[in-house]
């Protein structure tokens, strides 16, 4: 396993920019075969990539698609990193290379090895865990500046050749320390001598500008390198404009929304199974193939439990709770009105704050 630290990204040698016309890019993308990496939960793979009419189900791989950006968000401790580990193990076992970028949460190496060992045993493969972990590159992005520099002006070997999966755990982690919430920012400006309205407007909009640059670059990387990008997004509690406390993604807005091809939300309840002490998690597909799903269908909500060596799907399960999550500004308000908003158990622990509670 290759671990790298980003200490001085500004010293990286710039790479030449190669441009292609829109017609060439469209023709190239149309000729590529649609491929995907499994999540480790067959039911979730089918929900993300439902079989077409007349498809026997075994001809095409299913899961998060290559060449696209997939977002996973949910409350703290719900299993976002566990799902990312499961996807990474499947990508490694399929012969690809994986780049894991952490912005504060260390890579759980022991859990990754246990997940790989279980996957090898189930597939009866001759591969070994040591061989597979050599194809994983771990990069620590210590701040938002390091993350942006790596993605926009990375070294010539980033991402490595043959990389099929890029995981960012988490993409929203560095933002709160750089961009305070609007209420706090307005209070600071009120006590300062800053009166210039243009400067105040720039301070209020810089979060959205950085998010837009990040979203555009993730889309470019996924498209040019034909790899799957998994961006973990944390949550905050939103009170204003909502009938009750509601969980919202930290990174949001028009540019971020347009860059996301597939969106998964994870949440849990206090139901327990007879053979598992952990609570049941639910993975719900909210966006598929670039389109928000207006209706909540049972086949798009997959229950699972987290075990020490991976994820395990459940066959029979209680009815999933009506999750209290919503999307932020810049998204389709008509679809928001169609989606019923109710409480889930996780929201009871969230604070009443526009800034929200971020997992650590």
Automatic annotation (TrEMBL):
One cellular component term (GO) for this entry is: replication fork
Membrane-spanning ranges? none
Q: Name one GO biological process term.
A: meiotic DNA recombinase assembly
Q: Where is this region: Disordered?
A: 41-66, 322-360
Which PROSITE patterns does the UniProt entry name for this protein?
A: RECA_2
Which positions fall inside the RecA family profile domain? 33-235
Subcellular location as annotated: Nucleus
Q: Where is the composition biased (Acidic residues)?
A: 344-354
Please give the Gene Ontology molecular function terms for this protein: ATP binding; ATP-dependent DNA damage sensor activity; crossover junction DNA endonuclease activity; four-way junction DNA binding
Q: Which Gene3D superfamilies match?
A: P-loop containing nucleotide triphosphate hydrolases (3.40.50.300)
List, alphabetically, the InterPro entries matched: AAA+_ATPase, HR_Repair_Mediator, P-loop_NTPase, RecA-like_N, RecA_ATP-bd
Keywords annotated in UniProt: ATP-binding, DNA damage, DNA repair, Nucleotide-binding, Nucleus
Full protein name: RecA family profile 1 domain-containing protein
Question: Per the UniProt entry, what species is this protein from, by scientific name?
Answer: Aspergillus puulaauensis
């Amino acid at each position: 396993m290759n671990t790298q630290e980003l200490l001085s990204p500004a010293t990286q040698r710039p790479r030449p920019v190669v441009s292609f016309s829109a017609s060439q890019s469209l023709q190239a993308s149309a000729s590529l075969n649609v491929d995907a990496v499994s999540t480790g939960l067959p039911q979730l793979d089918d929900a993300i990539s439902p079989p077409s009419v007349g498809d026997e189900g075994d001809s095409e791989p299913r899961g998060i698609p290559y060449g696209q950006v997939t977002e996973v968000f949910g409350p703290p401790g719900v299993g976002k990193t566990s799902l990312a580990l499961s996807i990474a193990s499947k990508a490694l076992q399929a012969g690809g290379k994986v780049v894991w970028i952490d912005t504060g949460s260390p890579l759980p190496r022991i859990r990754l090895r246990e997940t790989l060992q279980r996957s090898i045993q189930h597939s009866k493969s001759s591969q070994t865990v040591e061989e597979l972990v050599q194809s994983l590159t771990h990069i620590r992005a210590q701040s938002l500046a390091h993350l942006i520099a790596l993605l926009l002006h990375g070294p010539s070997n980033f991402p490595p050749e043959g990389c099929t999966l890029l995981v960012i755990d988490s993409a929203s982690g560095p933002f709160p320390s750089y961009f305070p919430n609007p209420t706090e920012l307005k209070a600071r400006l009120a006590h300062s001598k800053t009166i210039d309205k243009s400067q105040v407007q720039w301070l209020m909009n810089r979060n959205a500008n950085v998010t837009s640059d990040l979203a555009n670059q993730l889309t470019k990387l996924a498209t040019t390198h034909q790899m799957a990008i998994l961006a973990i997004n944390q949550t905050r509690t939103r009170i204003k404009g909502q009938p009750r406390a509601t969980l919202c993604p930290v990174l949001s807005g028009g540019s971020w929304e347009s860059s996301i091809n597939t969106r998964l939300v994870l949440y849990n309840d206090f139901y327990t199974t007879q053979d598992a002490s952990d609570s049941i998690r639910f993975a719900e597909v909210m966006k598929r193939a670039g389109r928000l799903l207006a209706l909540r269908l049972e086949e798009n909500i997959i229950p699972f439990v987290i075990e020490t060596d991976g994820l395990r799907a459940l066959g029979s399960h209680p009815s999933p709770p009506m999750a209290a999550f919503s999307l932020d500004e810049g998204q389709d308000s008509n679809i928001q009105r169609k989606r019923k908003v109710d409480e889930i158990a996780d929201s009871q622990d969230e604070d009443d704050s526009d800034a929200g509670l971020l997992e650590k």
